[in-house]
Write a structure and sequence with these properties.
Elements: H1 4-10, E1 13-14, H2 19-25, H3 39-42, H4 44-56, E2 61-63, H5 71-75, H6 81-102, E3 106-111, H7 114-118, H8 132-147, E4 153-159, H9 162-175, E5 179-183, E6 185-186, E7 189-190, H10 196-201, E8 209-215, H11 222-229, E9 236-239, E10 245-247, E11 252-254, H12 261-270, E12 272-275, H13 283-294
Parallel strand pairs: 1-12, 2-3, 3-4, 4-5, 5-8, 8-9, 9-12
Antiparallel strand pairs: 6-7, 10-11
Length: about 300
């Protein structure tokens, strides 16, 4: 079987969509500090069902349910260090088992930002008040476990801040495992306000970073980000949200979806080599993207 990096050089790849969105559509209330990671011990079969739906839709990559998993978060639920390690490994095993059912595809072990584990929305602000050294120390235990699971690639994703990117890039370099580095952005800057040119430069000299890009952002922000990301000399990955906004007061999504197969074609034409979706992007959307990218235009 081709490695992830081999496949990436050969053709455009389709990433999956919003795992949490799909779980909520299946009736799960994901409120709380663990978000979708809670189902790793509650109902892991439901996570498998979502991976199955995305692979059936044509996705080449499944991102694991470890995005918001953390030692602190699981400890708050009475789960100790060994239990947390087992659950992190389970997140990958669930996805691998589903991939093996299909006989194709790649598994990306999700490593979300510090702000996701804090469960206070700070992944959309960055600037946590922690140094690069402190962030590296915080990420290391989870990173070390997920790097040892046999996942095809680490999805270092939804990073809002250059400091956190530097911390994670140093771990990627140290452990020498394939990883992508994906920022959440607003306009042409990170959520913390740094220029994207500086953000992508972090990855340019690290061989183990096999792709750079953006996720969990508005679809309208993708094209300018692709142009900037290409200067890092890496394949580009994009998987934005639908474009709907979260209304905290009503607890509902508001607005219309802007995610479309036409935009996905534009992203591919602009140079993106991995295309998928994040929040509010479902299996139906991914099926359209997979179909479009498999046909010459």
């Amino acid at each position: 079987m081709a490695t992830f990096t081999d496949a990436l050089q050969a053709r455009a790849l389709v990433c999956d969509g919003g795992l949490a969105t799909a779980l909520e559509a299946r009736g799960h209330n994901l409120a709380g500090g663990l978000w979708s990671a809670r189902l790793l011990f509650d109902t892991p079969d439901e996570i498998a069902a979502v991976h199955r739906a995305f692979f059936a839709a044509g996705a080449d990559i499944a991102i694991t349910a470890s995005y918001q998993a953390s030692f602190r978060g699981f400890a708050n639920c009475g789960i100790g260090r060994r239990g947390t390690e087992r659950l992190l490994r389970r997140s990958v095993r669930i996805a691998v088992d589903v991939r093996d059912e299909f006989g194709r595809g790649f598994i990306a072990a999700s490593i979300g930002p510090y702000g996701a584990a804090a469960a206070d929305g700070s992944e959309y602000r960055g600037r946590y008040g922690l140094s690069v050294r402190e962030l590296r120390a915080w990420h290391r235990p989870r990173f070390e476990i997920l790097a040892d699971t046999g996942a095809d690639v680490l999805a270092v994703e939804t990073i809002p801040d250059l400091d956190e990117a530097e911390a994670l890039a140093s771990l990627i370099s140290e452990f020498r495992v394939p990883a992508w580095l994906s920022y959440t952005i607003s306009g042409e800057r990170t959520r913390a306000g740094q220029p994207l040119s500086d953000a992508f430069e972090v990855a340019s000299e690290i061989d183990s970073i096999v792709a750079v890009g953006v996720n969990c952002c508005a679809p309208a922000d993708v094209i300018p980000a692709i142009d900037t990301a290409q200067h890092a000399g890496k394949p580009v990955i994009v998987y934005p949200n639908s474009g709907e906004g979260w209304d905290a007061e009503s607890g509902r999504w508001a607005g219309e979806s802007e995610f479309s197969v036409q935009l996905a074609r534009q992203w591919a034409a602009a140079g993106a080599q991995i295309i998928g979706g994040c929040c509010r992007v479902g299996a139906g959307d991914i099926a359209q993207v997979a179909s479009a990218l498999s046909r010459p235009t």
